[in-house]
Amino acid sequence: MRTRALVKRIIRQFIRDKRTLAMMFLAPLLILTLVNLVFSGNDYDPEIAVISNSEQIASQLEKADNSFIVYENKKRAAEDLENEKLDAIVEINSPSTKITLEGSNPTANKAVMMTVEKTLKSLTPQNHQQSSMETEIDYLHGSADMESFDYIGPFLIGFFIFFFVFLIAGVSFLRERTTGTLERLLATPMRRWEMVAGYVLGFGIFTIIQSAIIVSFSIYVLDIMMAGSIWFVILITLMLAVTALSLGTLLSAFAKNELQMIQFIPLVVVPQVFFSGLFNIETMADWLQPLSYLMPLTYGGQAIRDVMIQGGGWSEIYDEVLVLAGFSLLFMVLNVLALKKHRKL
Amino acid sequence: MTSVIQVFDVSKNYSSQRVLENISLNVKKNEIYGLLGPSGAGKTTLVKMIAGIETPTKGSIEVLDTPMPNLQNMTRIGFMAQSDALYVELSGHENLEFFASIYGLKGTKQKERIEHAASLVNLTEFLKKPVQQYSGGMKRRLSLAAALLHEPEILILDEPTVGIDPVLRQSIWNELYKLSDAGTTILVTTHVMDEAEKCGQLGMLRDGRLIASGSPQQLKESTASATIEDAFLYYGGVRNEN
Ligand SMILES: Nc1ncnc2c1ncn2[C@@H]1O[C@H](COP(=O)(O)OP(=O)(O)OP(=O)(O)O)[C@@H](O)[C@H]1O
Ligand SMILES: [Mg+2]
């Protein structure tokens, strides 16, 4: 009853606040679109010099891919490489092949290696042994036309939902304290847990809408790769949002004003980026890796990725969903205890 | 008559600062008890402890024979804070509706109570407006209405008439008298001397101590003062000489 009154009030307040609504629903879409544009731009086109004692091979390469430019003069090529006009020099003096990379840009390096590999392979399909870099390319997950955005998109969806919900819920609860209405509520028979539950439910309704909007937008408008069921993704993002919501309201107890709430972002939200799966956790320092278990976004990011890229179902994600539910519950209980600071019961 | 609010030897510290010192007082049923004192005397701190939203460092407080804080008691207390605790995005009506639901009022009863409380503070025609657009006095009145909604047995009002014009102030006091006649106990803080005269009982608070208490008449007579102000100065002066 009291919780319902609180939920109703939060919904009313939130609907009045058009700007915060936009921040919650539209800002993530805008940023996702931008990231999508950045990462789906044209692939890097490398410039590769070909120097060969066999003119036939050289011109074959040049014809096969317009990244290749035949150079007669080895010194000229070396100069151009130095001046970054070239990304690489390929010297083919049968039977040996030597590749010199400019090397300062990892994207260029990768593009060079892929172009060379692909072209050499297409030139010598009948004789595999000749190509020293011969590889069979197979995709266990994803596909040849999977873009970078397909890979980072799922984490970004999780991250933005976490970020915006954390901030908005945290500031709202904080404002309840700074405007004196929290104290006013504590002078009523409302219980502390009713208050926390009211906040989670009230904001929960908006996070459902937010999750649905962001996930549908990513899939249907940005055309992000989606191997599994959209409902699972919405479920995971919702659990992530509830975690962010309960963490935000909990931490707001330790902030005196909005600015101090914002100071939690570099402390609490940003570190999670590094563990959400955007970066490879296995390559981190050993002592750092256990930290990832403490971060809700690790589980959210992992689960979203399981569904969107690997097409996983309930059996793949239920453990992560349960962990997120556990986090939410823990934060809520801690919040109920934190409110004890204001009223003993 | 029975005591509904009993404060036993209460002291309150904020970190190391002592804000209230050994306060004991009794408020009887039906009484209008005024806490009078200059700014910073500790009035708000004291009434918050009585309302159950602060805990005494020392001593104890009983309301309706139950130690505070107590959730059951909170339904029987109406509290109006010194700073208006309202949701400014919402309309006046929505604010009242929210507080009414929290006290478990619903349906026609809720509607009735909201209408009654709003008319009491002359806000009926402004209920649709968002509180953001209210003047300071209007917000004050809305806070008062919110405290009256659930017909509490005890009303705790922290400077209820600040920013309210004399005419409306008079009508609010008339309403307080009516409530008191009907059985409500009222604890009100003020630093306005002429308002103190309107209370049945007075407690004079200064620097965290209760320097005197009694009816306005008694306080004036025993200090041979013409006004409450003189009486207050007298007690304050005596304390200063010690
Ligand atoms: N939360 C707090 N933390 C620290 N000190 C406080 C706190 N609240 C009040 N005080 C101090 O307690 C003293 C009494 O404050 P209180 O608000 O009770 O005064 P008051 O009599 O209500 O004054 P006013 O008439 O201005 O409202 C003041 O010195 C104030 O600085
Ligand atoms: Mg005060």
Describe this structure in words.
- The complex is a heterodimer of chains A (345) and B (242).
- Chain A starts with a helix and ends in a 7-residue tail after the last helix.
- Chain A has a 4-stranded mixed sheet, sandwiched between helices.
- Chain A has 14 helices and 4 strands.
- Chain A is mostly helical and 345 residues long.
- Chain B folds into 2 domains: 3-76 and 153-241, P-loop containing nucleotide triphosphate hydrolases (Rossmann fold, 3-Layer(aba) Sandwich); 86-151, no CATH class.
- Chain B contains 9 helices and 10 strands.
- A 6-stranded mixed sheet of chain B has the order 6-7-8-3-9-10, sandwiched between helices. Chain B has a 4-stranded antiparallel sheet with strand order 2-1-4-5, with helices on one face.
- In chain B, helix 6 links the parallel strand 7 (154-158) and strand 8 (185-190).
- The longest helix of chain B has 16 residues, at 166-181.
- Chain B is globular.
- Chain B starts with a strand and ends with a helix.
- The chains are: A mainly alpha (345), B alpha/beta (242).
- At the A-B interface, helix 1 and helix 8 of A face helix 2 and helix 3 of B.
- The complex binds adenosine-5'-triphosphate and magnesium ion.
- Adenosine-5'-triphosphate binds at residues 14, 17, 19, 37, 39-45, 82, 191 of chain B.
- Chain A: One of its GO terms (molecular function) is ABC-type transporter activity.
- Chain A: It is a multi-pass membrane protein.
- Chain A: This is ABC transporter permease.
- Chain A: Residues 113-342 form the ABC transmembrane type-2 domain.
Q: Quick gist of this model?
A:
The complex is a heterodimer of chains A (345) and B (242). By secondary structure, chain A is mainly α. Chain A contains 14 helices and 4 strands.
Write the layout of secondary structure elements.
The complex is a heterodimer of chains A (about 350) and B (about 240).
Chain A: H1 2-16, H2 18-25, H3 27-39, E1 48-52, H4 55-64, E2 68-70, H5 74-82, E3 88-93, E4 96-101, H6 106-123, H7 148-178, H8 181-186, H9 192-221, H10 230-252, H11 258-262, H12 264-275, H13 296-308, H14 314-338
Helix pairs in contact in A: 1-9, 3-7, 3-9, 7-9, 7-10, 7-12, 7-13, 9-10, 9-14, 10-13, 10-14, 13-14
Chain B: E1 3-14, E2 17-28, E3 32-36, H1 43-51, E4 58-63, E5 66-67, H2 71-74, E6 77-80, H3 92-102, H4 107-120, H5 136-148, E7 154-158, H6 166-181, E8 185-190, H7 193-196, E9 201-206, E10 209-214, H8 216-222, H9 228-241
Helix pairs in contact in B: 3-4, 3-5, 4-5
Bound molecules: adenosine-5'-triphosphate and magnesium ion.
The site of adenosine-5'-triphosphate has 13 residues of chain B, from strand 2 and helix 1.
